[in-house]
Write a structure and sequence with these properties.
The complex is a heterodimer of chains A (114) and B (116).
Chain A: E1 5-7, E2 10-13, E3 19-24, E4 31-38, E5 42-50, E6 53-57, E7 64-68, E8 74-78, E9 87-94, E10 104-105, E11 109-113
Parallel strand pairs in A: 2-11
Antiparallel strand pairs in A: 1-3, 3-8, 4-5, 4-9, 5-6, 7-8, 9-10, 9-11
Chain B: E1 3-6, E2 10-14, E3 19-21, E4 23-26, E5 32-38, E6 44-50, E7 56-58, E8 64-68, E9 73-78, E10 87-94, E11 104-106, E12 110-115
Parallel strand pairs in B: 2-12
Antiparallel strand pairs in B: 1-4, 3-9, 5-6, 5-10, 7-8, 8-9, 10-11, 10-12
Classes of the chains: A mainly beta (114), B mainly beta (116).
């Protein structure tokens, strides 16, 4: 158990809808990272937050947004969902903003868009 | 630019035989390199990491990897495979500076099958 929790485990929704994925980092970790794992794209970095502020952006679509709250949990919002958004979404956490220390991954949220 | 190439998408070995999972990287800076393992329906677990200390890195479950700068490689090995090693393995490079500081770049993964 990495200490990173993600809810829900599974999410099934329809095209055009909006969903919110939640992540709670390990105790004491200030950085949260979001990743998308799909069959065609593999594992891709989406976005990083550090202590409530956006730190780095990766291949995140404009339809997606994230935030980190004062209690350090983070939410990833996916809107106007398309079939291609079906994927496993992971969050990870680490203590520092640099990310060169170990990132600890949550179990993931599997999103299915029908 | 940073990138990682895992040279084999699938590797099959018999239990008790050695494992070699190959990884080549490209990095503009001095990289930090990781191997993560993903068991079915589970999150990613860190196996080992290289951060410019010793070039031979020992990880969990008997795995180790050697950083070879001249070959830009970071291959993962284990002397004797166990059935529980069957999983997908990801080689990862991370920047330690620049605009993409902290961003992980993942290889496409190597699926390891272990036959009894």
């Amino acid at each position: 158990d990495s200490g990173v929790t993600q809810t829900p485990k599974h999410l099934i929704t329809a095209t055009g809808q909006r969903v919110t994925l939640r992540c709670s980092p390990r105790s004491g970790d200030l950085s949260v990272y979001w990743y998308q794992q799909s069959l065609d794209q593999g594992l891709q970095f989406l976005i990083q937050y550090y202590n409530g502020e956006e730190r780095a952006k990766g291949n995140i679509l404009e339809r997606f947004s994230a935030q980190q709250f004062p209690d350090l949990h983070s939410e990833l919002n996916l809107s106007s969902l398309e079939l291609g958004d079906s994927a496993l979404y992971f969050c990870a956490s680490s203590p520092t903003p640099t990310g060169t220390d170990t990132q600890y991954f949550g179990p993931g949220t599997r999103l299915t868009v029908l | 630019a940073q990138s990682v190439t895992q040279l084999d998408s699938h590797v099959s070995v018999s239990e008790g035989t050695p494992v070699l999972l190959r990884c080549n990287y490209s990095s503009s800076y001095s990289p930090s390199l990781f191997w993560y393992v993903q068991h079915p329906n589970k999150g990613l677990q860190l196996l080992l990491k290289y951060t410019s200390a010793a070039t031979l890195v020992k990880g969990i479950n008997g795995f180790e990897a050697e950083f070879k700068k001249s070959e830009t490689s970071f291959h993962l090995t284990k002397p004797s495979a166990h059935m529980s090693d069957a999983a997908e393995y990801f080689c990862v490079v991370i920047n330690d500076r620049g605009s993409t500081l902290g961003r992980l770049y993942f290889g496409r993964g190597t699926q390891l099958t272990v036959w009894p």
